Amino acid sequence: MNDNTMHIPLAVIGAGATGLCAALAAADAGVEVLVIERDGTPLGSTAMSTGLIPASGTPEQAAAGISDSPAIFATDITRKTKGTADPAMALNLARESPDTIAWMRDSHGIPLELVGGFTYPGHSVQRMYGTPTRSGGELIASLQSAAEDAGVMILTDATVTALGTDGDRVTSLTVTRPDGAVEEISCDAVVLACSGFAGNPDLVARYIPEIADAIVHGHPGNKGDALIWGEQLGAAIADIGSYQGHGGLAVGHGIPILWPLIMEGGFQVNLEGRRFSNEASGYSEQAAKVIAQTDRVAWSIFDARLHELMSQFEDYRDAISANAVVTAESVEALAEKTRLPAAALADTIAEVAALTRGEGEDRFGRDFTGKPELAAPFYAAKVTGVLFHTQGGLVVDDDARVLKPDGSGFPNLFAGGGAARGVSGDGADGYMAGNGLLTATTLGKLAGRAAARQINNG
After folding, report:
1. Which residue intervals of 81-224 are DSSP H helices?
2. How far apart are CA 202 and CA 216, in angstroms?
3. Exposed, middle or buried: residue 63 (CB in 10 Å: 0-12, 13-18, 19+)?
4. pLDDT tens-place string over residues 59-109
């Protein structure tokens, strides 16, 4: 290092939800923070999401008559992941989740509210919080505004290309600018908030070959930097084959057709007009099932009731504007517009109606009862399966400190969000809606607080 090297107490790599929450938490404690972001503006995977964050045992749930607790939430995670998620981590995040929501909303003005109306796959109760527009873009913009109000410095158009170390301590970062200029920044602690590796085809092919040929609908900056640095440092890595897929990206439009329409009675058919899976198991594992169909596509079938329900989501409104959704007054007209075999589609719609009435059992194990039968006019969207982001990564403790294989921690290195191991277990079927932003916001908060304590205590 030379005399011109900039020094910052806490350096945060990445300005998504993890990085901005870490920065806000550290700023709360009076620590000077620099967030370094490769893009021209903070976006990350957060901006591409619906911005929904689960929390358990909140006052808003109690007021709505929803009985929930961290123990119930952790049990849901264990059930969905078939016991492969780290139980201690799941319980810690569940316990911290109410505070995360209250802290973001009450201390930093993030407009979060309890989302009612439906329950996502794997969640036993309604526990999602979101912004008024149900938009990740609104969430990240609110976090950026809060960070700027808190005096957090955000350096954009800057890519961290290397970590400098002294033993097992990270002591500096090498930052490269678009014009090729290189600068070095020394630091007392680092938070890795640069997400996972969905945007690195080589790493995806190595660790998650089942989804390697899927379209990647995630942030292109998710190059696996944290994973690569962790491997170089000898950090512990777990659940590396875990990811969030989605079985409902509108073909040719790049817009997710979200899963409430499935959970409230919609279904999917292949090009033969036949259902091929239990769609309600989860949208993440549905990605590989859709990709396995002819031409790697399916049609999501729903009706006016579900169209109205979905209209609260920005993504769905975008899909309507893009003409990604077709509507028809009858089954025959729907078959003509989708070019699906009319007889097979009519049989499938009739079969689902019978299952909704409780007549017979679904061969795929789905329970359609308790929802209204679909009725004309019908709606449909042609979709494919995609990879959103990875869920495996660096193993961290309850303070989001990066761990070594022997369980000891790196003294000043923290990670959260896609950079860290999440609570989705070891595959795609363990992902529950909101898992990504649960780990992003809560591990970011915990990392920022722990790094601040360390810096303030010298």
Report:
1. 87-102, 108, 136-149, 201-207
2. 13
3. exposed
4. 999 999 999 999 999 999 999 999 999 999 999 999 999 999 999 999 999
